Amino acid sequence: MSLRLRFKAGALPALLLPCAAMATNGYFSHGYGTQSLGQGGTGIALSTDALAPATNPANTGAGGGDRLDLGLTLFLPRRSAGIAGNAFGPDSQHDGDSRKVFAIPEAGFSQTLSPALSWGVALYGNGGMNTGYASNPYGRYGAQGKAGVNLEQLFITPALAFRPSPGQSLGVGLNLAVQRFSAQGIGLFDGFSAAPGHVSDQGTDTSVGAGLRLGWTGSLAPGFTVGATWSQKIRGRFDNYRGLFADAGRFDVPENAGLGLAWAASPGITLLADAQRIRYSRVAAVGDSAALLFGGTPLGAPRGPGFGWRDVTVLKLGVQWRVRGDVTLRAGYSHGRQPVPAAETFFNILAPGVVQDHLTAGATWALSPHNEFSAYVAYAPGKTVQGQHSIPPGAPPAGLGGGEASIRLKETLLGASYAWTW
Q1: Over 60: is that where the pLDDT of 359 sits?
Q2: At a CB cut-off of 8 Å and minimum separation 6, what does 7 contact?
Q3: CB-based burial of residue 83 (10 Å sphere; 0-12 exposed, 13-18 middle, 19+ buried)?
Q4: Residue 369 burial class via C-beta count within 10 angstroms: exposed 0-12, middle 13-18, buried 19 and up
């Protein structure tokens, strides 16, 4: 059994990366691990599975004993875009769902080294973005073929948790990030790039980086636990697309931080609340405005044009209800600030990460003292951002005919995991 489990955990990174494409809170996942995903993405103050390092390394090993979790999520996004009032062609609608279903594996392992020390490692899709338009929204400007992008982020986070006193825990993790990106069908922007020929259709490029994740949890009063976590910005670069992304292809994973609260309201019910801040605006390729391009700054230039995303604050609520000794039910809700301003929808046809709300439900069944099965479902209602002055009528690039671009996204997620403890 031990050898089989180690093989499964070791093989997972190779399976995970080609599938880790999602867009929920911007392009970050709304939570990590089946149990967290079923309770609105909460887990900063309390986590009981081995995916804890993905949210707060201070919770590593908090579930007690040694543990291995393996899970899979089916992610079903629906994305589309429209252009209206444009001088270069009639109003049009475009379906971005060339691929409709994504399989996203996850894994976590934790081990107790002493009453005060635990270590673990989590493997998961931190986030991503995928669009594929068979009918190219930029075709009216001369773009050829299908259009779309694919961004994948795999994180491997080894972590260590130290409990200096009862009810207090400090954690440190290292986020090892592997990013992959590809773009197609947007070669018309070559003429407005600092590196023509490196904007579109350059295959899949890969970037590797690392950054710290720190965390703390503390019991402030009987039944109340507070948690805090912070993740460092991770440097990344897609050299093949240095003519698309600002700063010659620089594409960092943004800094993010969060606070959490867990309240044991009764012996069987725990209420959870998290607040997360994702600093997209500090990554030029994501946060700089496309208006820079229309003002004459080429793509790929230092502090060049980007997608114009704002920083996102996400508020999450969750509940765990232990119905009986072997069954726990979960539910949750989260709401985030809209990352895409109405004036930035033209470029974000490629990256419509506009959903703001998630409704979730989940459950865990203890099949034996050493095995449990968890499942969840999450739904992000469709959200449309209607462009306002999003297609300039003049100025570089050479007059786009005016009008507005609108973008839309909705999502459904279904997931399950199995855990072994010993």
Answers
A1: yes
A2: none
A3: buried
A4: exposed
The DSSP bridge pattern shows strands 205-221 and 256-266 to be unpaired
pTM for this prediction: 0.94
Report helix, strand or coil for 140.
helix
**For residues 304 and 216, what is the distance between their CA atoms, to the nearest angstrom?**
37
- Terminal-residue alpha carbon distance, the chain: 11
Domains identified in the chain and CATH numbers = 2-421 (2.40.160.60)
Main-chain phi, psi angles of 57, to 5 degrees: -65, -20
Strand 92-95 relative to strand 102-114, pairing: unpaired
pLDDT tens profile 85-103: 999 999 999 999 999 999 9
Listing DSSP states for 227-290 in one string gives EEEEE--B--B-GGGTTTSHHHHB-PBPPEEEEEEEEEEETTEEEEEEEEEE-GGGSHHHHS-T
What is the Cα–Cα distance from 69 to 122, expressed in whole angstroms?
A: 9
Both tokens of 56, joined, read: 């707060």
> What's the rounded Cα separation, in Å, for the pair 359 and 272?
15
Please name the residues in contact with 2: beta carbons below 8 A apart, sequence gap of 6 or more.
none
Q: Tokens representing 287?
A: 């946060």
Q: Which of 303, 334, 280 is nearest to 39 (CA)?
A: 334
**Predicted confidence (pLDDT) per residue in 154-184, tens digit:** 999 999 999 999 999 999 999 999 999 999 9
- In the prediction, which pLDDT does 9 show? 44
Establish how many alpha carbons lie within 13 A of residue 350's alpha carbon, considering only the half-sphere containing its beta carbon.
23
Closest CA to 113 of 180, 162, 148: 162
**Any idea how long the chain is?**
422
For tokens 């020390």, name the residue. 117
The rounded distance, in Å, linking the Cα atoms of 69 and 43 is 16
In the predicted structure, residue 10 carries a pLDDT above the cut 90: no
